[in-house]
Design goal:
The complex is a heterodimer. Chain A is of the alpha+beta class. Helices cover 49% and strands 6% of the residues of chain A. Chain A has a 4-stranded antiparallel β-sheet with strand order 1-2-3-4, with helices on one face. In chain A, strands 5-6 form a two-stranded antiparallel ribbon. In chain A, strand 3 and strand 4 form a beta hairpin. The chains are: A alpha+beta, B mainly alpha. Chains A and B meet through helix 1 and helix 2 of A and helix 1, helix 2, helix 3, helix 5 and helix 6 of B.
Chain lengths: 340, 184
Amino acid sequence: MNDEQIEEILRRAPRPLAPAGLLTKLRADLALPPRSPTARVNRTEPAPFLRRWFPALSFAAILLTCIVAGAVQINQIVQLKHENQELRVATRNLEQLRREHAEYQRLQVEHQDLERLRRDSAELQRLRAEVTQLRAQVREIGTLRAENQQMLSTAQQPGQTPPNPDFFAQAEEDMRAKALSIRCVNNLKQIGLAARIWANDNSDILPPNWLSMSNELSTPKILICPADSARAAAIDWVSFSAANVSYEYLNPNGSEEEPQVVLARCPIHNHVCLSDGSVQQLGKNRRITRNPNDGKYYVIDPTQPPANQGANFKLNEEMLRRYGLIPTNAAAPATSGSYE
Amino acid sequence: MSDHAETLCDRAGAGDMSAASELVGLFYERIFAYFRRLCGNDDDAADLTQKTFFKVWTSLASFQRRSRFATWLHGIAHHVYVDWRRTNRSAELQSNEWWEGCPADGPSPFEDAAEKDAARQLFALVERLENGTREVVHLHYYQGLSLSETAESLGIATSTVKYRLREALDCLRSETSEPKLRTV
């Protein structure tokens, strides 16, 4: 008997019949548990599915994480290898670059030496030219000495006028006087500038005296003419007095709008500072005179004809009044060029 | 029948007495036959059937529906039988007359004169197999469960079921040619 026959016979085994009252007993013994809403399992509920597949899912997640981590590490390793390769190539070129750099440094030092030599050579050339020039001047000095000796010998001969021995001293004195005059002009310019600054801050009215514009004047020394040896400058404005001034202040409380009026005057050099801040060196020909109408001083030139008689040039009344040639009082008739 | 049984099980779980009664009607004959073949007398088989259905009703709320209702029912029946065996009760061997008196679902092997002797010999040999092998043969061949259902009912692996069936067939084949049986 083979396996198929054995299985066939076993599958067709007879089934014993149940006793007649068994079904009734079983139905009578039916005792179902009380109904519980939680007893019924919801097959569509996702929780059992997750609980069933949690080990596989967790393993898959761990495997995926490991794969990702491995991929990242492999990527980093590849990058590091690439960087290592680049660094090796760069290191290979580094020796060559060092040699080139050393060569460059050496050439730079040589270039600096060459530049220094060039400068020295140029300096040497310049010195040589100066030496040549000096030698020429020495030779010229020798020639001039010879000419001077010759002129002296000619002058010592009878019939010739001897040279003035004070000639050079006189020239030096003239230069010194001229320098003092220039310094005096400079002082007057500073005085005029200080007066104008003071007037700008005080409604275009010029200061009444020297002390009023002490803030605008840098030092009391500029009130002393350099040629005035009789006076000494004040140490400061506290000890300032009339004895410390060389100049005459001629337009106290005057208006800045009268530029022709004399503001200050140096009695030694006859320099005047006008109310517009300008300074004039009057010299021997010109002088100042006081207008009796307004009591102010103006510069006049006696050698020139009066303004209204010379070349038939006649100023109108407005210009005459502006320059103070007629009194501001309209009732008073305009006078001629004589103001004294 | 399976889907109908699952539906009845759901309804019984919800407290439907008529569904539970119908479930009993569907399965009590198979369960009784299972116990009757194993125990050897009607009274014990009827008691074990009652115990089995009592456990079914008390455990119905914990039925997870991971298997068919018939598989779950046979698993309970197996545990009930194991508990019964632990009381040192020995099963009675079925006589040939009893086998011949049992009705069959289809053509009975005892109807054919050629198979009659072979059937008698085979059924007697099955009763003398080892317990584990005999239970596998009962569930798979007599009760009509599949291999996986048999394995699930017994709580063993399908491969173990296959192995035991192979072992049983080898034994039956060898014994039918050479009657050398092991004692139970």
